[in-house]
Known about the structure:
With 204 residues, this protein is mainly β.
Amino acid sequence: KSANPQWREQFDFHYFSDRKDMLDIEVWRKDNKKHDELLGTCHVDITALPTKQTNCLELPLEKHPGSLLMLIAVAPCTGVSISDLCVCPLGDPTERQQIAQRYCIKNSFRDIKDIGFLQVKVLKAVDLMAADFSGKSDPFCVLELGNDMLQTHTVYKNLNPEWNKVFTFPIKDIHDVLEVTVFDEDGDKPPDFLGKVAIPLLSV
């Protein structure tokens, strides 16, 4: 019920060199009776923004009235990584010892925001649902922790895909829940849902 909404939400996107350089933003009106209505879109060229500073942008919505006020900061990506299983970041005993020292009790208050990190090895899925007419699926896996999201590559025509990837997330809230969702890639259409599991960090 507002034409001037204030959300005050922060989202972290992990921007890697092989990703596209445009940030696409859509504004929708939620309607419980009918389909949701698109109120406008805007785009931000990430490569044109100065780095290591907060940029205040007022973005007019394309072909629609109104604008968005956003704060966007582009900074070096730290604490998040994707690697193959054979080069697992925590495989080195020396590195494990350094990490144990970094998070020992006496260093607890050295950096309040540095709670720790979570490393997830996504090995494989077994007996997935067939989403295609061929009796197969094109599955990929999405991992979400707080507002952080990473995903595997797609394994085509396979109900027992093997990804063998290692994902590392910085932990910002120990009460967060790791959500792992498997989707079926469907060309230009939205991906089909194949299953999901939620793991509270406190249970690890």
